[in-house]
Amino acid sequence: MKKDFVPHLFIGIALVSFVAAMAIGCIAGIQYLYPSFLKDELAFYQIRPLHVTFALSWIVLSIFGGIYYYLPRICDTNLHSRGLSRVHVYLFIGTGLAIIVSLVLGIFGGREYMAFSPILSIPVLVGWGLFAFNYFRTLYKKLDRWPVFLWMWATGIVFFLFTFTEAHLWLIPYFRNNLVRDLTVQWKSYGAMVGSLNMLIYGTALYLMYSITKDEKMAYGSKAFALYFLGFANLLFGWGHHTYIIPASPWIRTVAYAISMTELLILGNIMWHWRKKVSSSLKYAELLPARFLFSADLWVFLNLAVALFISVPALNVLTHGTRITVAHAMGTTIGINSTILLASVFYVLSQKYSGVLERHRLMINRGFYLFHISLFAFLTFLVLSGMERGEWLNQESSITFRALQLSIRPYLTGFLISGVGLATGALMFVIPALKCLHCFFTGRKEVESDLSESDQLYCGSI
Amino acid sequence: MGGYLGPDLTNVMSAPGKGELYVRALLKIGTDVMPNYNMPESEIAALVAYLDYVDQTGNFPEPNARRTWYGSIKIVDDSP
């Protein structure tokens, strides 16, 4: 078995999930405009959990791929058990397929964001457990001083295990039979789970920034550790603004919101200063991950602006339950988290396949710009339709829901078109990435017979 | 407050022109947006009972709700 087989396989299925999430998102966009589209074959109640599952899979699998690749290099050793990492990846592929089939067949049983049967959560938990064991055993007694990204990953792994378990407490009647307790635990666990994933993603961003510029401040600097501690506080307390439907003192939400926003501000600040240290002499493939990190930085500030806008209570009452909140969630998931993880994917691939990436430079560049311009339009249309709905929710007149849907149709059309642009742009840089993976899995000899002459040249030059 | 594809159902059981028969008909036939889920009678009855329970919890929109300048919602008692 090839070295780095597991990280590359994780990255491969992560990219497939990324494309699938966007393709299904486009179908959902069509259903907003034409509700009868695939209504009986793949209705919205199936489309939504499928979209969420693929989007979450993209995030989690690309995190695994990155950490499995980086960890042995950071510790200058082999992974504790490559066998266990193989069990992990195959377990996740099998479970993922089972989840997709069950959702397509309309077999549910779970709750929002994890709508699949809770039985399938068991292999997910086991997979995370194997990952945690391998991570800590690899690190054991290897380093005297941990860089900040190792702390962030360690914290993210431990708390994901905790919050994922907590998110299933509703299976116990003691929690399920009390509405307020049930809602509190459910949304608390989801909010803290997002905090755990952010730990893993921001840790990845710091590792990439450290690796690209060799700037020690990214690994051991006080600002980097401030981000870690703030992220940790966010993980512990930031769920307060996810539990808006639970009776609670307003200060709890305000404090939670302030922690979240400060975390983003510090991340944006670190990235902003790091930009100046990126050498202009880097080759295209080496610069590609840095470009994704630059764009993540811009999305950090844009999302902060939206978040501050909707956090003003007098405006929040108009925006809550509208697509403005969705715009904020999509802006962070796609604009910040996905671009950081794309930076990680291209960093791994550029280590061996810079030739393939260089060969597709024009296509990747066009895809990169199309992706970001479309994302801006996508979020703008979400905000505009959200404003219309916010006004409708708060007015005295009795315009029907159907009339509202008709009035926001132009925005939904823009939303669909920009969504298709987003997916097309992503495909333009995902295809070259998949070609790199094809080179990895097939090896040079197979590549020569399968790929075009120009691709052979680049795969063969590895 | 309703979803993104469907209307608010808080008071569908007591709204003028709607009620149990209306809900049962929609669940059995579906709409141009919502498919017919082919639910058995037991599931339809459970959903009707749930919507009945939700209807008892309050009104949406709440006629006595007033928005303050700060953005919070205040329930005003207009009764004499």
Brief summary:
Chain A is built from 18 helices and no strands.
What does this structure look like?
The complex is a heterodimer of chains A (462) and B (80). Chain A has a domain at 317-462. Chain A is mostly helical. Chain A has helices spanning 5-33, 44-75, 82-104, 121-139, 148-166, 173-176, 179-213, 217-220, 222-237, 250-275, 284-311, 313-319, 323-350, 354-359, 361-394, 401-407, 409-450, 453-460. Chain B is mainly alpha-helical. A two-stranded antiparallel sheet of chain B has the order 1-2. Chain B is elongated and about 45 Å long. The two termini of chain B are 29 Å apart. The chains are: A mainly alpha (462), B mainly alpha (80). Chain A binds chain B through residues 31-32, 35-36, 39-40, 43-44, 250, 312-317, 321, 323, 393-394, 400-402, and chain B through 1-2, 4-8, 32-33, 35, 67, 69-73.
- The count of β-strands of chain A is 0
Which geometry of chain A do the CA atoms define?
Answer: globular
- The SSE order of chain B reads HHEE
> How many individual β-strands of chain B?
2
**Rg from Cα of chain A:** 22 Å
Q: What characteristic shape of chain B results from the CA principal axes?
A: elongated
Secondary-structure content class of chain A: mainly alpha
Helical percentage of chain A: over 70%
Proportion of beta-strand residues of chain A? under 5%
Low-confidence stretches of chain B: none
Considering DSSP H and I runs of 4 or more, what fraction of the residues of chain B is helical? 25-40%
Number of helices of chain A: 18
Oligomer: heterodimer
List the secondary-structure elements of chain A in sequence, H or E: HHHHHHHHHHHHHHHHHH
Give the integer mean of the pLDDT values of chain A.
Answer: 89
Give the overall average pLDDT of chain B.
83
| Spatial separation of the terminal alpha carbons of chain B | 29 Å
Write the layout of secondary structure elements.
The complex is a heterodimer of chains A (462) and B (80).
Chain A: H1 5-33, H2 44-75, H3 82-104, H4 121-139, H5 148-166, H6 173-176, H7 179-213, H8 217-220, H9 222-237, H10 250-275, H11 284-311, H12 313-319, H13 323-350, H14 354-359, H15 361-394, H16 401-407, H17 409-450, H18 453-460
Helix pairs in contact in A: 1-2, 1-3, 1-17, 2-3, 2-4, 2-7, 2-13, 3-4, 4-5, 5-7, 5-9, 7-9, 7-11, 7-13, 9-10, 10-11, 11-13, 13-15, 15-17, 17-18
Chain B: H1 20-29, H2 41-56, E1 65-67, E2 73-75
Antiparallel strand pairs in B: 1-2
